[in-house]
Batch of 4 targets.
Target 1
Amino acid sequence: MRRGALLALAAVAALALPAAAWSHAGLVRTEPSASKTVNTPPSRVLLSFTEPVEARFAIVSVTDADGNQVTAGPPRSTPGAAQTLVAPLKRVPEGWYLVFWRVISADGHPVRGAFTFAVGPNPGPPPQFRVPSLGETATTTRLLVSRWVVFLSLLSALGLFVLRAVIARPVVRAVPACSLRPLSVAFGAALAVALAAIPVYVVLATAQFTLRSAFDLGAIVPAARASGFGRDFLDLELVLALFGLAALVALYLDRPEREQRSVVELLALPAALLAGGAALVLPALAGHAGQKAPRGLSLPLDVAHLGAASVWLGGLIGLVVFWVSVGAEGRIAALAHVVPRFSAAAFCSVVVLVGTGIGSSFLELPTFATVWQTSYGKALLVKIVLLFAALLLAGVNLARTKPRLQAAGVRPSLGPNAAVLLRRLVQGEIVFVAAALFAAAVLTSLAPPAGALARVKDIAARVGPGPVSEVVAKGPYRLSVEVSPNRAALPNTFSLAITRGGQPVRGAEVVSRFDMLDMEMGEQSFRFPERKPGVFVKSAPALVMVGHWALQFEVTPPGAQPFVVTLLDKASG
Amino acid sequence: MSVRGRLLLALVALAAAAVAWFVVLEAIRRTV
C-alpha cells in the first residue's frame, strides 16, 4: 500500500515543475511605430516595455541607411514611467532608420531587438540594413555555474539548519553518545559558501549587463545595485547574513539534552526560522515569480517550492554528515531515531514541492505542447526526469530502509546492511537533486514560453530560418507561401498564391496577422493586395525581431467561407 | 552564561529576524 502510494507520488512528481521561472522585458509600443512611415522628423525614439527597465544598462542605437548614428544622447527613463525609454534624436532627413535596442529585464536577463521606421513623405525604397546580432543569452557557463552554486549552498544551509535545530535534535536524549556538532559545522560551511557565492554571482551578472570584464570591479561594483535583479540579490546577501546571525545564536543557546526548550530557546529558534523564510522570498522576488501576475499567487508558490526543496536537499546532506560523524557503535540506534523523523519531513516537503511545481507550471506554460516545443520546456523535462530518479531512490528508502532501521532494535542483524543501503541511496538522491537544481538554474535562465503560443492553433507548417517557399493544403485550396529574405528588422516580401483545382482564386480577401511568439508584443495585421490573379503580395518589415513568429493568413474567397492558415516561422537576424 | 546574557542573545536573534523581514518587505514594496 505504502509502495503504491509512493509510485503514485513519483508519477505526480513527473509533472512537478520549476523552482522559479524568470520573465523577460517585452517591447509593447514604439514611437515612431515599427515599420511605419512618419511625415515629420521625430525628435526622439520611445520604447515602451512590459516591465521597468534600467536606463543605465540600456542601449538604444538609431542609424541611417549608411550606418551613421543619429541619436543625440543616451537613452533615459521617462519620469514616472520606468518601463519607458526615450532616446533623443538629431534632426533627421527623409529616409529609412534602424533602431537597435538592448535592455536588461527586471529579472536580470538581457534582451535585444531591432526595428525600422521611415521619415517621409518620400523615404525611398527600404535599404538592406546591417543589423547587429540580436541573440544574447543569460545561459553562459559561468553564470549558470555561479547561479547553481548560490542555490545549492543557500538551500543546503537552510535545510541543514532545519535538520539540526528541529528534526535531529531529540536524538541526543535517545542516544547520548552522538553529537549534533558536525551538523552545525556543515550548516556553517554551507552558509559561508552561500555568503561568498552571492556577491560573485552579482558581479558576474552585472559584468554581463554592462558588457564589461568581470574583473573591471571599479565599474561593476557601483552598478551592481542599479538593476532590480542586483538589488534583490544584494538584499539576499544581507538577509542571509542576518539569518546566519540568528541561526548561530539559536544553535548556541540550544540545549538539546533537556527535554523542554527554555524561554530563550523558544525566542531564538522561531527568530532564526523566520529569518530563513525571509531569505527564501528574495530569490523568488528576483526571478520570474516577482514579475508574473498574479504575484499574490506566484510568489507564495515559489517561496514554498524553495522552502520544500531546502528541507529535502539540506536534510539529505545532513543525513550523510550525520552518518559519517556518528561512531559505528551508536550509528544504528541514532539513525533509527533520526531517519523516521526526517522521512516524515521529507515526505511533506516532496508533496509541497510537487504541488507548488504544478501550480507554477499552470501559471508559466501557456499550452501543454510548450513542454516539448520550447527550450524552456525541454529544460523542465530534464529537471522532472532528474527529480523522478531522486524520488525513486527516496521511495526505496521510505519503503525498505526506514522500516529495517526501526526493526533493528528488535532484530539487530538488520541494522548494518540497512545503514549502508541508506547511505548509498541518500548519496544518490543528493546527486540527482543537485543535478535537478542545475537544470533549474538553466531553466531560470531561459525565457518562459510566450502566452502568444496559446493563441496559435493548427500549425500547417514550420518554416525558416532563411527564405520560405512552402505549399500547404486547406480543404479544396492550395496555398503557396513565400517569404523573402525572412530576416528580422528588414523589409520582407510575403507572397501567397491561392489555387483551387489548379485555377487561381481571384478576388479573395487576404489579411495576415504577425504574432511574436518568444515575447509578448503587439500583434501586427496587414491586408494583402492582389498583384496577379490569385497572387497576394505584401512587402513590410513585419518581422520586428529575431525568433519565432506565427504567420496567420485569413483568406476569404469570394462567396465562400473564410479559412485560416497558420505557419510557424523562425526569422533570423 | 547568565540568564540575562542568554536573554540578550535571544533578543539579538529576534532583532536580526525583524531587520531581515524589513529588508524583504521593502524589496516586495519596490517590486510590486
Target 2
Amino acid sequence: MLDVAKIRKDFPILHQEINGKPLVYFDSASTAQKPKVVIDALVDYYSSYNSNIHRGIHSLSEKATEAYENVRNIVASFINAPQPETIVFTHNTTEAINCVAYGWGRKFLKAGDEILLTEVEHHSNMIPWQILSQEKGVVLRWVPITENHTLDLKKLDDLLTSRTKLVAVTQMSNVLGTINPLKQIVQKAHAVGARVIVDGAQGVPHAGIDVQEIDCDFLAFPSHKTLGPTGAGVLYGKMELLEAMDPFMTGGSMILEVWKERATWNKVPHKFEAGTPDIGEVIAFGEAVKYLQNLGMNNVRQHEKKMTAYALERLSEVDDLIIYGPKDPELQGGIISFNFKEIHPHDVGTILDQEGIAIRAGHHCAQPLMRVLGVQGTARASFYVYNEKSEVDKLVDALYKVKEIFQSVGS
Amino acid sequence: MSVADDLYREIILDHYRNPRYKGELPPPALKVEGANPLCGDELVMYLEVKDNHLADLRIKTQGCSISCASTSMMAEAVKGKELTEIDKIIEQFKEMMLQKNGAPESAEELGDLEALQGVKKYPVRIKCALLPWNTLIEALKAVRSHKPAEKVIME
C-alpha cells in the first residue's frame, strides 16, 4: 500500500493552484512529476561536482563518472538486467528505439524480412521501422486489436512466420492502457526465430519489468516518465546483440582508437554513448529509480489498479461518455482514454484546465490507432503514485461541467 | 469571467452545432485544404469567384468547437462579398485576434465574429480560430495569381 498523502509531500509541483483551483495532475503518461530527491540531485550535481565524465584526471570528473556509472547498476537492478553493461543511456525512448533500428535493423535485416508491429504502437516505435522498410525493403505487418481493445493474439500467431525477424511491441498502450502479455509474445516470437523489442515507455514506470523473465531482446524506456528528468533514456539489450550491432551515433567517447581514415569502437555500452551525455540528468534519474524501488513497483501497480478501478466506475456514471480500452484494471495500467459523443477532446481539455485538471487531449502520437478507433483524438487521464481517488471525483465533476456548457446551446 | 462566458459563448456553440455553408462545391470551384497537425483539425474549402465577388463557398471541417465555429462564422461574413471587402474583414479579424490587450475599434464592425475574441484568453486555442482564415488567405492568393493553392499547415 502506498501512503499517497506522504508521497504528495515529496512532489513540490503538486502544491499549487491552476486557474484558481488546486492542481490535479492527470498527465503522467506524457511526463511524470519529479520528487524533491530528484530535483535535489540535479541541483547538487550542477552546484557541487559538474564536470565531464570518463576523463578522470581531476577529482570532480572522477566523482561525476562514478555517480553516472553507478546509475547503470541501479537501472540494471530495477529491470533485473544480467549485467550493468547491458544498460545504454540514450536521451529518450525514441533515441533508444532508433538505436536498434539503425544499429541492428539496418545491419542485419534485408528485403523480404518482416517486422511485426501492433496497431497500438506510439509513433516512436513505428516511424524508425517505416524508414527501415523504405530503405531496405523490409515488410511491416500489423497485429490488430480485438473489440475489447486488447492485442489479438490469434492474429499474432497467424502473422508470425519464419520471415518474421523482429516484433516491436509496447508493454502498455499509451492510449488504451492495455498491458500486453509480453512473456507470451516473446515466447511465440522466439519460436520462429524473431527478436523482440519492447517499448517500455508506459509499462516500465508503472508496472516495472524483469527483462530476464520476459526474455525480451531489447527494451527502451525513458527517465522522464519514471519520475526522473527529461534528457535521459535507457536502451537495454542482450549483450551478444549489443556487441554485434553498429553504433547509432558516432563521435567522441564511443571510440577506442582513431586514425585519419578509420576508427575502432569502444566496448559496450560506451560504443553507443557518443558525445557528452546528460550527466546530471542520468544521475538524478538514478535517484528517481531508487525512489520507486523504495515504494516497491508492486505497490505502485496495486495503487494504480485501485485508481483505475475507481476511475472506470466513476467515469461510467457520466452519460454520453465513451470509454476506450479493456475497462479492466487487471488488463490495463493507469491510463484511461475517453470522449464525449459530440464534443472535441480539446474542448474537454480546455474546460478541465479551467478546473485545475491537467489531462492530455489529441492523437497521443498514435494516429494509426486513432483511425482504428474511428476518432480524431481522445481525452486521456493518466495516474501515478501521487494521485488519489478524490482527484477522480474532481475529474467527474468537471466532466459534468463540460456537458453543461455544451448542452446549454439552444436551451 | 468563466470559460462559458468568454470561450464557449452561445453564439459560438450555435455555429459549432449548426455550421453554415457546410459541404462541397463541384469543379471548377477552387479547392483549398487547411490543417492544424498538432490538434488534428482539418478543413477543405470550396470557393466560387465571379466578377470579383465570392459568389459561393462551402467548407467541410473536422475539428474542435472553436475551429468549426470560426469557420462557420467566417463563411457567413464573407459569402457574397467583393474580394477587396473580404481582404478588409480578414485584416480586421486577424488584428482583433492578434492584438494582445483589448480589441481594436474596428472589431465592432465584425459583428458576430467579435464573439471569438474570448479565445485570446486561451493562447493555445488561437490557432484553432485562425485555421479557416489562413486557408481563406491562401485561397484568395490562388484566385488572384491563377496558380494552384497550397495546403495550409498551421505551425
Target 3
Amino acid sequence: MRPKIEAVCQTMAADLITRVIPAISPTYHQGTVGMIASILSIIGEEWDRAASRRVEENDAIRKLFRDAVPQVNDATFKQRLSAMSETRDHDLHISALEKSNCELRATLIELHAQVESQPGPEARGIEAAIWKELRDSTERRRLSTAQF
Amino acid sequence: MLSLEKALAQYIQLKMPAAGQVRVDQLEQISGGASRQTYSFRVSYREADNERERRLIVRRDPAASLIDTDRKIEFAAYQAFFRTPVPVPEVLWLEDDPRHLGSPFFISVEMSGFQSAPARMLMEPYASHHEKIAQQKWSILGEIAKQDPAQLGLVGAMEAVAPDQCWKRELDYWEGVLDSDELIPQPIMRAAIRWMRRNPPPLAQKISVVHGDYRTGNFLYDETGRIHGILDWEMSHLGDPLEDLGWSLNRVWCWAHDDRRGGLVPREQAIAILEKASGMKADPAALHWWELMACVKGQGIWVSSAHAWETGDNKDPILILSSWALMNSQDRAVLELMGQLP
C-alpha cells in the first residue's frame, strides 16, 4: 500500500496532537485523543516489523529446542520439543505467526523451568541461551517511545 | 433517566438535608486513575440564608476497569490519612447503592489548581524542582510507612497479613492475574516468579499501610514543586512497606527516559530519602525482591488491561495504550533486575 502505512499512521498521530487536540475540550477528551495518537504511532512503528520479528523469534526458539533436546530427560517432553523444533512458518499472516509464537513461547517456559532445576554445565548452557533469546525478544519488541 | 448533574444534586440534597436549592454544574470528566470514572463538579446551595459553593470530585465504578479494587478500602484510606502528615483530599460520602448514579461511587473535596501528569513535570517551571519534589515524594512515603495501621483505624478495613506472608500474598495474587488474564505467554515474568519463590524476601520489618500505586502521576504538585495531595489509593492494603518503595522505583515510571526514578532522582537517592524519613532500612536483598514484585504486579495490570479491552465492554484507549506501551518495558525491567541486560 502506498503511501506507506507507517508514514500514514505517524502523520495522522502528529495531526491529532498538533491540530486536533488544541481545538477540542474538555481536557479529558484531549487526553483520550492523545492516547489514540500514541496508539496510532505504535501501530505505525510495529507495522513494518510485525511479520519479520515473529519469524525471526520463532526460528530462534526452534533452534533453542533443537539444541536442548539431548539434555531433556522426560521422554514425552523430549518428543514434543523435538516435534516443535521441526515446525515451520508456512502461513505468514500475522495471526498465524502469532499463534505459533504463543505455542513456542509457552513451551519455552516449560523448558526454562526444567533446565533451571537440572545440574551441570550443559543445563547452564541452555539456560544462558534461553536468557539470551529472552533478551533478544525484548529488543525485537522495543518501541522508540518506551521509557525503558 | 436523570442527567449526572441532577442525580448528583439529588444525592447531595439527601446527604445535606439542611441545605436548600442544591444545584450541580461545571461537570467535567477528568483523568483520575485507571479504575474509576472521575468527574469534577461545582455544587451550589443555600445554607442559613447564605449562598455557598464547593468544588467536589465523584469517583464512580465503571462497567469494567483496569484494576479490580474495592472502593470501601480506598475511601477508608483517604479518611484515615486526612489531617496526618500524608496530604490527601477530604472524602465526604461513600455510596454502594447503584440507584443514585448507576453504579457505586464516592465523593471527595477537589484539590484545585494543581498538576498530576508525569509529562508536565518534565517541563518548566516544574522541571527545576525535581529534587524538591523527590524529597517530598519519598518522605511522604516514609510517613505512610511510619503510621500505625491500628491507630489509623485501618486494621478492620484492610485484610490482615502476617509479616512472613506479605510477599506470598502479593505474589500469589498477581501470578493468579497473569494465569487468568494473559493473552500471550510471559516467559520473562514466569522466570522471575520461579526465582522469587525460590528466593523469598526476609520477614517484613513491620506491617504498614501500603499505598499500592505510589508513583509519579498519583500525586498533585504545584509550580513551586510542593506536593499537595497523594491520590489513587484504590490498591491500598496492609503489607511490607518495601512494596511501595519497590513500586515507586519501577523502571516503567522513568518518565524522563533515563535512570531517574519517577523521572526525578537516581534510585539510590530515592532510597536514602525514604530511609531517612521512615527510620527504616531498605535491606538490599529484600528491596530487590520487591522491585521484581513490582514488575510482576505491573505486568499483571498491563495484561489484565489488554484482557479487559479484548473481552469486555470497556473500550477505553488507556487499556490498549498501557498494555502496548508498557509490557515490553516491564519485561526489560525484569531482565535488568535479574542481571540479564548487558
Target 4
Amino acid sequence: MSKQTMMKKREQEKRRKFGMLIDLDRCTGCGSCMVACMSENNIPFRKDETDKLTSINWIRVFKLSNHKPFPETEICFLPMPCMHCQGKETGHTPCVSVCPVTATDYDSSTGIVSQIYSRCFGCRYCMVACPYHSRSFNWSDAVWPEGMEKMLNPQVSPRMRGVVEKCSFCYHRYQEARDKAHFEGRRNIAEEAYQTACTESCPAGAITFGDLNNPGHRIHQMVQPDLENGGRPKQKNVFRLLERLGTNPAVYYSSTRTWVRNMGDNRLLQENRQHTAAGSNLQDRRA
Amino acid sequence: MKLNRRGFISLGLGATAGLTLSPLPYKLLDDISIWTQNWPWVPVPRDGQVSFVNSVCTLCPGGCPITVRKVDERVISVSNRKETIDSASGVCPLGLSGPQLLYTPTRVMSPMLRSVNGFQPISWEKAISILVSRLETLREGGKPDKLAALAGSNLGTGPALMNRFLGAFGSSGFFHMPSADDAWEAVTWKLTGRGFVPGYDLERATTVLSFGCAIVEGWGSPLRSMHARSLWKETGTTLVQVEPRLSNTAAAADRWIACNPGAEADLALGMCRVLLERYPVCRDRLGAAVTNPDEFSSHLYHHYSLEQVAAMTGLTGSMIESLAVDFAASKHPLAICGKDEGRSPIASREVFATLMLNILVGRINRPGGLYCIERKSDSRLSANFLHAPEKVFAAAAETSEPSIELLLVAGANPCYSQSNPRKTVEAIRKIPFVVSFASHWNETAMNSNLVLPVHSHLEGTTDFPVYSGLKQPKLGLSKPVSKRLFNSRYMGDVLIETASRLGDAMAPFFPWGSYETYLKQSLGDRWQELNEKTVVDLPQPKIRSIPMMNTSAFHSLPTRLTGSRQEYPLTLIAKVSMRLNNNADASSPFMMKTVEESVLRKNRGFVDINPDTADEQNLSEADSVMLETPHGQATVSVHLDAGTAPGLLVMARGLGHGADDEYSGGKGTNVNELLGEMTDPLTGYNIAWGARAVLKKV
C-alpha cells in the first residue's frame, strides 16, 4: 500500500460516515419505518394520499416481485430512504452537484447529505438528478388539522410549499448525541446514542444504523465497506442500489435471494445471467 | 462625455459581467427563498422540557410496552421499550400513531345528545340525568332485563365493572365482542369440560406450521410475533405458511403451501391421518389424550384419505404426506391457527384440528409447543347462541317488541366490525335508546342516541390483561401520559355515579369514590409493582396435561360458503395489513398515507386477482368492476397480482369507514359488508372467512 493511499485511508478513518444496512430477508413491509419517520420529522399529510407522485415520504417501502406465475411468485419489500451518496469523489453527490444555491450539501464529517429548506427555492433540479427518486416537493402548504400541530417535533422545522425535502438520517438526533457527548467531555458518539427513528421503530430488526468507518460499529462488520473501492461491500449478499452508477450510497441492502440482488442494479435479463454466474464465482472464491 | 453605441454596449457588458461575478444574484435568490417562506401559517413548534413516560399501548389486544416522548405537556412520539421482554424492538404503525389519535379532531369532545338537528353538546350533569332517567323507567316498568351492554372484551376491570352494573340492575344482558381465545375456550370446554386458551411457545419451536396466521401482519401480540419470526432467522426455525395467497407472511416463510381457501382444517386432519398411519407413538399419544381414539381414527380413515384431502386442499397427496412427515421429524414442531390477525373467533373445526395435530406430535405443555392456559370466564355458551353479538342484534331486529330497550356500548364498534354491518345498524336503530362510550367518533357512536366521551389510550389509567397467544399471559397498566384534552371521563366513573344516583338498590354495589379507587383495590398487591414496571406476569396455575377429551362432537362440522358456483364463480377473502387499523376505530392519517396504491386510489378500493383469472374475465389493471357476493355489492378496481390463487379475490380489511373523518372516512369498502355471516355450528360465533363472488365490468 503506497504512503499516499495510507494517508488517504487514515484521513478517511478520522471522519464519520453514517450509513444504513437494511436486511431485506427480515423486512416484512409493515410500514412502521414510514410512520415513525413521519412522526419524527413533521412530515405533512393530506386528506388524499393515494397519488404517490405527490405524496411526501422520506422513506418509502417498495414491493418487489420475481414476476413468476402462481404459486412460484415471490415478493420482497425494499424500504428506500435517501441514499446519502458520497459520489466518486467526496461531495460529488448527484443532487449536491446540481443545486444552484447550495441548499443541499454533503457533510464530509458525517457523510450525511443535508437539505436546507430556507435556501431551497424549489427549482427541483435535485429531484431530476437523484437516481433514487428520494426527494419530494411540497406542492402545497402543509395543513395540520386543528389541535394536531401539538404533536409537531420542535427539533425539526416544518416546511412550506415550494421547497424540496428528503431524509436527513434524523440529523437532529446526531446533533443531540454530539452535544451530549461534548457536554460529558467525550469526543466519540456511542453507537446506540445516535439511531434514526426508522431504525428504532422497525419491529423486525431489519435496519442497522451506524458509522461505516468505525470498525466497532455493527454496520461496519456487517457491510465491510471497501474504502479503496468507493465503499463497495465486501460482505457476501450485501449490495447497494444502482451500484454501477458510482454514486457511492451510504445505504446498503442484504438479501440471500439472487433475484432481489439482481433487481437492485436494474439489470437486463441477459446481464442478470452473466452477473449471477460472475457473482457465484466471486462468492465461491471468498468462501 | 458623449455615450456612443460602442460605449453603451461596453457599459452593458461590463455591468452584466460585474453583476454575475458579484454575490448579489445569489444573495437575492437566497433572500427570496427566505422571504417567501416567512408566512404566519407555517407552524413553529414550541421547544420545551423533554420527558419520557412509560406506559402500555392499549390500541390492540397486544398490549405492548411503550415509551412516550413529551415536550412540556405535548405528546410528540411513541417508541419501544427495550428493557422489556416481549417487545424487544420496534413499534407497530398503529402504536406509533398514538399522538395523532390523541390530538385528532375526530375525538368526542363532550357528551353529545342526538336530536332532530343532529348531535348537540350537553353537560355531564344532563347526560347522566338522561341515563339515570332511562334506567329508572326500565326499573319502574319491571323490565330491568331490557338493559344490555356490549363491551370490546371481557377482560380487565372496565368490562368487569359494566358486568357488575348490569348484574346489580337485574339484567343478564352483558355480552362482548368475541375473540379467538373465546373460541378456543368454548371448544376446549366442549372437549374436556374445562376452558383453555392457547399459549404458543413460538420462541423455542423448531418448526412452526401456521394455518393462515398473519404472523408478520399483526397476528396475536403483533410485536412479539414479529420478533419471534426474526429470532427464527437466527435459530434456523422453519416457518411453513398454509395460505391460499402470497401474503407478507407467506413471503417471509421458509415454505409456502398454497392450499385452497377454507381447507386449513382439512389439511390438518389429513396430516393427522398420515401421522396415525405411520407412527405408533402418535397412536399411543392419541390413546392417552382422547376417550374415543377408535372413533376418531375411523372418522379420519373414512373422510381424510390422501386423495380426499388432496381434492379438498388443492395440494398433491405426496405434498401432504411430506408435510406431515417433516413436521413430525422436527425437534419441537408447533401448529398454530387463527387466520389473519387471529383475533376474531376461529372455526371450532380449525381449533380442534390444530389441537389434535399438536397432541399427535406430543407438543402439549412442552417447550416449543402449545401450552394450555386455563381461563375461567363467566360467559359460557348460551342457548340459541345469544352470547354472540350477531345473534343478539339479529334477535333485536327481528322481534316486533324490542328485546333490548337500553343498550350501553363501550370499547366496541359493531356497526363496522361485525358481519353484515348494515343489518347491525338497522338493529341498533330499532333499540329505543343507545348509549355509546367512545373516545373517537365511530360508526356505532354515530348511530347512538347519547355519546359519552371517555379518555383516549394516552389519557387514563387502566389495567390491560394480555393473552393473545402468549405462553405467559401479562397484565399491563396504561398511564395518563397526557393531561385530559377534552371533557372526557372514565366509563367506570360514569357507572359509579349513575349507580349512586339510582339509590339504595344500586349504590351499595359501587362503594368506591372513583374508578381509579376501584382499579387500585382490584389490583391489590400488584398495584405498586404495575405502577413501576407497567407490565407484570399474570399468575397462572401450572397445567401438566389437559383432561381426556371426547372428540365425537367435532366429527361433522361443515362450514361451507353459501351461494351457487354457477352464479358466483369466484371466492372473496380478506387480507390484513399492519398499515391499516383492523380494530374498532379507523386508521390514523399517517397509516392511511402508507397504504399502497394497489390497495386504495382516491376513494376506490381494490381487489387482488390472479392475472390468468383477470384474462378470463377480460379485465386489465385498475379496471372498475362491480363485486357482488350473496351478502352485498361494491364498486371496486382490480389489481393484477400473481401471488393470488386463480379464482380468488382478495380485499383489504380496515377500509370503508363511514364515520365523519376526512382522512379515513368513505375510502374503500368495508369487506365485512361483502363477507356476510357464517355461524360456527358449535360456538355460534361468526367465522366468515370468505364469500362466493362474481365480478361485473362497469
